[in-house]
Design brief:
Blueprint lengths: L18 E4 L5 H11 L7 H9 L3 E8 L2 E9 L6 E9 L8 H15 L4 E7 L3 H9 L3 E6 L9 E7 L12 H7 L7
Parallel strand pairs: 4-5
Antiparallel strand pairs: 1-2, 2-3, 3-4, 5-7, 6-7
Amino acid sequence: MATRDEGREDEGAPASKITIRPATLADVPALVLLENRSFSGDRVSERSFRALIRRGHSALLVEEWEDEIRGYALLFFRRGNAKARLYSFAVARKHRGRCLAKALLRAAEAAAREHGADALRLEVRADNAKAQALYGRRGYKSFGRRSAYYEDGTDALLMEKRLTRRRRRRSRPTTARRRRLGKKIARP
């Protein structure tokens, strides 16, 4: 699955060249390097990246240009649960502000839909205003907070975006209400 996104130019690479694809085992060294440069703690290990690429309950998407992994999105899925989880998300510091995060997030949402999810949930550091703004612009709503969630004691804001529209149910009167209204109760 490769996706393309329009946006600004990136060091000679038109934003239309943004290519997002599933990660392979060959990407693991670059993913570990990006992870270590992006996060001071709570990192995904090399072993975990390898295991997640092999398993079916997750999706690991990478954005690549000229053999450089510039960002990734890691999603988890649970059987029988209609909510997917964006577990980890990173864009290389030197490539931020160039529509890569928006494109990766859009691809993550598409992957969640493909796995049957009707919503995508995530945790974001309470002190990361830029990430919160990105998620907010993409339609994510805050619905809670986890105290001291991160390794350094920082709280996490819980956010969710509905990926499918809820179907409006016709309100059918309950059996008791139909009796009160004096209507005949039809049995299915």
